[in-house]
Amino acid sequence: MSKKLVAEFVGTFTLIFVGAGAIMNGKADLLGIALAHGLAIAVMIAALGGISGGHFNPAVTFGFLVTKRIKLEKAAAAAVSSRDVIHTCPMHSEVKQ
Questions:
Q1: CA torsion, ordered 55, 57, 59, 63, to nearest 10 deg
Q2: CA gap 12, 84 in Å, rounded
Q3: Long-range interactions of 16-22: CB distance < 8 A, separation 24+
Q4: Which residues contact 4 (CB under 8 A, 6 or more apart)?
Q5: 59: Cβ–Cβ under 8 A, 6 or more apart, which residues?
Q6: d(CA 77, CA 4)
Q7: Are 79 and 61 in contact (CB under 8 A)?
Q8: Distance (Å, whole) CA 77 – CA 69
Q9: pLDDT, tens digit, for every residue of 22-62?
């Protein structure tokens, strides 16, 4: 289970870091921001999807929970892992200010 949570953490961190980085860069237009998010999620699913299932967005995990494709314990662990990413992301403090 810890290997899955680390994979979720790394995947979510990459998605947030690359996506927010594209936005905060200020040079990317809407297409550039969309490509940054899309490529980040595609690479993370290819690299870590086999380990964690590829639920790098908590909304995906919630959808799987609602449709009973994942157990509550696993969904809660994935949600905690995703929440930790938001609080450890270096850009989180800049966005809040």
A1: -10
A2: 10
A3: 16/85, 16/86, 16/89, 16/91, 17/89, 17/90, 17/91, 20/89, 20/91, 20/95, 21/91
A4: 51, 52, 53, 74, 77, 78
A5: none
A6: 10
A7: yes
A8: 15
A9: 999 888 899 999 999 999 999 999 999 999 888 888 888 88
Please enumerate in sequence order all residues whose Cβ is within 8 A of that of 70, keeping only pairs 6 or more positions apart, or say none.
53, 55, 61, 64, 78
50 residue type, one letter:
G
DSSP 8-state assignment for residue 27: -
**Is 96 strand, coil or helix?**
helix
**In the numeric block, which tokens belong to residue 46?**
């290819």
In 69-93, which positions are buried (b, 16+ CB within 10 angstroms) versus exposed (e)? ebeeebbebbbebbeebeeebeeee
Whole-number pLDDT of residue 77: 83
Question: Both tokens of residue 64?
Answer: 């799987």
Q: How many CB atoms lie within 10 A of CB 43?
A: 14
